[in-house]
Amino acid sequence: MDNLTAMRSSIGATLSFMMSAWHNPAARMFNTDLLAVLMAASLPWSTSLVAIFSVCWLAAVVLTLEWGAFFRFLKQPICALPLGIVALAAIGTLWSDAEWSARLYYIGPATKLLFLPVLFFHFQRSTRGMWVFTAFLISCTLLMVVSWLVLLAPDLAIRGGDPQRGVFVKNYIDQGQSFALCALTLAYPIFMLLRERRIWPALALLAIVFGMLANMAFVIVSRTAMVTMPILLAVFAVLHLRWRTSLMIFAGLVLLAVVSFAASSQLQWTVNTFLRDYELYKERDIPTSIGLRLEYWQKSLRFIGEAPLAGHGTGSIRGLFESARVGTPVDASGQAVANPHNQTFAVAIQWGVIGVVILYAMWLVHLLLFRGEGFVAWVGLLVVVQNVLSSLFNSHLFDFHEGWMYVLGVGVAGGMVLGARAQGHPQQP
């Protein structure tokens, strides 16, 4: 009873503190941080909740900004380049041949980048950035548990359209990207815990990692994650491990991959479909996953060649693909899409070399932001590298789920790193 009374008292004090935000700057900061936590927690589950919480967070953070310092802060390349992409998307409507409704609609995917400077500025002042990462990890862990349950009872899934094996909400690509990011992020704290001989916390995190990796091997197999995860693991080994340790881990991962492939029919099917899908596309023009990407990329290169400097304008992609149709709508060559499944092509078709230069410059300055040591720098580095690699096969910066993973991950981690450096701690612990 004493514990229950204390808990009620604590909850009441917290609610009273939150309600004092109108006259208490500390409460306003707390409420703003809590909204960011809710954004991260809802991202694996819902697009609507993320949109609602992001608008609420932006409205809340406006009340805490020091406007003079914020406008000076926007001059930094880490802020100016994302804003440049949004500005180019808006200006690109002027030379597009698409309908104005399409032009305005396709500004939308870039607008989430407007949150990056605000996140940087806010979380260099806040001390609760780790709450955001923890919320995302816990949310993904719960989703992983639910995914196993949906595998056993498919009727539990609530996602619309055709059911996907083991997918409760959204789709297998979003789910796989979230699990891959969490599993690889936990490599750093597990490694540090083992070095400190804190075995039980390390085992708890290892259980989460193996649960997610097993889910990706036996339940939802994402080809993008299969390609990007080995590269990201290599990045971790180069940055944090001795070469002998790296070789031992590499041998263990190869053994684990062989065992997983032998035991998982889902993984075998995914790997075997690579060659089959390519042959069906080349020989019969069947719109397979790989075949469609090759078709989109070939046509994209032609579109870029027609307007290399400034592109065809915002919202022009679908119209260009419709004009380039060759076969019937059921053939790969007859498909018309608004997404070429490659971030570079999505930018270059609409805004040419100018857009590509700004995009790659943004990735580079964000990558350099996390060149220090520490867990936070590792999180930021991993988010940027994952986005760059996965954007070879999808337009992930403009996609909702992966785009917000980038904005939240880079924004929060970048703000924490900037805050640590401003306080004289160049290496974030």
Structural features:
20 helices; 429 residues
Topology:
Layout: H1 2-19, H2 25-42, H3 47-62, H4 67-73, H5 77-91, H6 100-105, H7 108-111, H8 115-123, H9 129-152, H10 172-185, H11 187-195, H12 199-218, H13 223-240, H14 243-263, H15 265-284, H16 289-306, H17 317-323, H18 343-369, H19 375-390, H20 400-422
Helix pairs in contact: 2-3, 2-9, 5-18, 8-20, 9-10, 9-12, 10-12, 10-13, 11-12, 13-19, 15-16, 16-18, 18-19, 19-20
Q: Provide the domain count.
A: 2
Number of strands: 0
C-alpha end-to-end distance: 39 Å
**Residue share in β-strands:** under 5%
SSE run: HHHHHHHHHHHHHHHHHHHH
Q: Count the helices. How many?
A: 20
State the secondary-structure class: mainly alpha
Taking the sheet with the most strands, its summary is: none
User: Rg, please?
Assistant: 23 Å
The stretches of 5 or more residues where confidence is low (pLDDT under 50) are none
The averaged pLDDT comes out at 82
Helix content estimate: over 70%
Provide structural commentary:
The protein has 429 residues and is mainly alpha-helical. The protein has 2 domains: 24-270 and 341-422, no CATH class; 276-334, no CATH class. Helix content is 72%, strand content 0%. It has helices at residues 2-19, 25-42, 47-62, 67-73, 77-91, 100-105, 108-111, 115-123, 129-152, 172-185, 187-195, 199-218, 223-240, 243-263, 265-284, 289-306, 317-323, 343-369, 375-390, 400-422. The longest helix has 27 residues, at 343-369. The chain is globular. The mean pLDDT is 82.
